[in-house]
């Protein structure tokens, strides 16, 4: 009997996670299950609240590239860490790490960005 | 969230407990209510349902939470009851950006004469003025709440992100604004506290005198707030609220809600804590509770905050979702 109860308890925990992620929310937009790294060139910059956003062109072959939608924290959070508007501009070559979008969507929630001069920018929520 | 119904036993877990959980970075505090109905156990953390299993003197609790980055995860607390105290270990489950190392937890019975706020107390009211920076201490950030049928019906049709006021630069108001991790400043003059929130550059007035709203004052996301000192706590009650959502999950806050905030200072006046309780029977069977802590930080500044919703509307347009968004307009406010 107890074995069955324990099973139900753990099954409920599993089902709960599934329910929480079934909505179209930030959690549904990105997955914390893995972190990926991208190399590319900045195409567009939105350095504004409520969220900073960059478009990144990533080459997939000599002739082809794909565009990734990079999402960052609010301007005020980034500014406190020294991440200001003029640090990243259109045309800049960067490396970025973050949480990717679900279901193969080419979106990325930024964790870290490395600029061509080696400068590392961290996008981390206040702790 | 499913509330698990499990067999009862003779051990006395029933009642109201103050849970304290320690990982390697911080201490969280919360109100745990354990009840037995029809020989089945039910439990609630900070007003929201949690899974519970009890076997003899052993207990296991599964509580959902949401980290600062927005990812939902669980904490599994296992322990045992001895000498009217519960002690045990806990671990984080599910992927989260804020990783927590396994740690210890304990629970003691809530004192009868106290509120849910059994935090360190000051000896007298102190000067709250200054700039305050949020920490990630205390708050379990309980994700799901115990909703009425009306509250469930609302949540069922709510689309987080699309319907979230913040993404289109609209104020989410209270109580969420109090819980966000942005700094704020407190001013005091002429029997009035003024809270200046960095987030969305919001201003809030808390009257400490007989001020009352005019009969024609419209409701708002900030409501009408009165503050009184009860011992060493500044107790703020806010009414005249406009409909909004409680947090990113989208649970409804009705126009009839009353929000109580209890602020207290540490003995050295450098740490401010708040207990935030939502009383909204239209939507919640139990009062949702949040706790926040800030440290006095004279070296920081309240930054200007302008907001441009293009980063929300343009991708939605590019993804062909604009008509869906327009069709949902009656569901937003």
What oligomerization state is this entry in? heterodimer
The CATH architecture term of the largest domain in chain B is Beta Barrel
CATH names the topology of the largest domain in chain B as Lipocalin
Work out the helix count of chain A. Answer: 3
Brief account:
Chain A has 127 residues and is of the alpha+beta class.
Could you explain how this protein is built, in words?
The complex is a heterodimer of chains A (127) and B (333). Chain A is α+β, with helices and mostly antiparallel strands and 127 residues long. Chain A has one domain (25-122): Beta Barrel (OB fold (Dihydrolipoamide Acetyltransferase, E2P)), CATH 2.40.50.140. In chain A, 23% of the residues lie in helices and 35% in strands. In chain A, a hairpin with a 6-residue loop joins strand 1 (36-46) and strand 2 (53-59). Chain A is globular. Chain B is mostly beta strands and 333 residues long. Chain B has two domains: 15-109, Lipocalin (Beta Barrel), CATH 2.40.128; 130-296, Beta Barrel (Lipocalin), CATH 2.40.128. Helix content of chain B is 8%, strand content 41%. Chain B contains four helices and 19 strands. At the A-B interface, helix 1, helix 2 and helix 3 of A face strand 4, strand 5, strand 6 and helix 3 of B.
Secondary structure elements and their pairing?
The complex is a heterodimer of chains A (127) and B (333).
Chain A: H1 2-20, H2 26-29, E1 36-46, E2 53-59, E3 65-71, H3 75-80, E4 93-100, E5 107-115, E6 120-122
Parallel strand pairs in A: 3-5
Antiparallel strand pairs in A: 1-2, 1-4, 2-3, 4-5, 5-6
Chain B: E1 15-22, E2 27-37, E3 40-45, E4 48-55, E5 58-66, E6 72-82, E7 85-93, E8 103-109, E9 130-134, H1 149-157, H2 176-179, E10 184-189, E11 192-197, E12 202-207, E13 224-230, E14 233-239, E15 244-245, E16 252-253, E17 258-265, E18 271-279, E19 289-296, H3 310-318, H4 322-327
Parallel strand pairs in B: 12-13
Antiparallel strand pairs in B: 1-2, 1-8, 2-3, 3-4, 4-5, 5-6, 6-7, 7-8, 9-10, 9-19, 10-11, 11-12, 13-14, 14-17, 15-16, 17-18, 18-19
């Amino acid at each position: 009997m107890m074995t069955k109860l324990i099973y139900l308890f753990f099954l409920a925990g599993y089902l709960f996670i599934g329910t929480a992620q079934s909505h179209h929310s930030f959690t549904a937009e990105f997955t914390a299950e893995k972190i990926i790294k991208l190399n590319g060139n900045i195409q567009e910059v939105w350095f504004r609240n409520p969220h900073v956003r960059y478009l990144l062109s990533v080459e997939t072959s000599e002739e082809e590239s794909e565009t990734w939608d990079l999402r960052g924290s609010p301007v005020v959070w980034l500014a406190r860490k020294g991440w200001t508007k003029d640090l990243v501009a259109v045309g800049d070559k960067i490396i970025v790490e973050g949480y990717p979008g679900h279901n193969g969507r080419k979106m990325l929630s930024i964790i870290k960005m490395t600029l061509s001069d080696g400068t590392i920018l961290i996008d981390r929520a206040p702790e | 969230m499913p509330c698990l119904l499990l067999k009862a036993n003779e051990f006395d877990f029933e009642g109201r407990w103050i849970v304290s959980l320690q990982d390697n970075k911080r201490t969280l505090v919360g109100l745990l209510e354990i009840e037995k109905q029809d020989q089945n156990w039910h439990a609630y953390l900070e007003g929201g349902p949690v899974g519970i299993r009890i076997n003899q003197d052993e207990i296991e609790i599964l509580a959902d939470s949401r980290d600062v980055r927005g990812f939902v995860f669980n904490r599994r607390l296992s322990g045992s009851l001895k000498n009217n105290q519960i002690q045990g270990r806990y671990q984080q489950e599910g992927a989260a950006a804020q990783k927590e190392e396994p740690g210890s937890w304990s629970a003691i019975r809530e004192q009868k004469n106290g509120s849910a706020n059994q935090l360190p107390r000051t000896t007298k009211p102190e000067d709250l003025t200054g700039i305050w920076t949020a920490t990630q201490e205390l708050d379990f950030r309980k994700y799901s709440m115990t909703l009425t049928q009306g509250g469930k019906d609302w949540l069922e049709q709510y689309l987080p992100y699309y319907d979230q006021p913040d993404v289109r630069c609209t104020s989410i108001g209270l109580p969420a604004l109090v819980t966000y991790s942005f700094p704020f400043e407190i001013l005091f003059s002429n029997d009035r506290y003024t809270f200046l929130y960095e987030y969305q550059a919001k201003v809030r007035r808390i009257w400490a005198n007989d001020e009352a709203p005019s009969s024609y004052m419209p409701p708002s996301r900030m409501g009408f707030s009165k503050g009184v000192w009860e011992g060493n706590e500044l107790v703020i009650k806010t009414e005249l609220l406009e409909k909004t959502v409680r947090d990113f999950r989208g649970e409804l806050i009705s126009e009839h809600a009353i929000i109580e905030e209890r602020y207290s200072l540490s003995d050295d006046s450098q740490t401010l804590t708040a207990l935030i309780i939502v009383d909204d029977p239209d939507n919640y069977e139990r009062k949702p509770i949040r706790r926040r802590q800030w440290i006095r930080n004279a070296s920081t500044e309240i930054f200007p905050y302008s907001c441009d919703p293009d980063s929300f509307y343009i991708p939605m347009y590019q993804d062909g979702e604009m008509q869906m968004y327009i069709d949902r307009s009656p569901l937003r406010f």
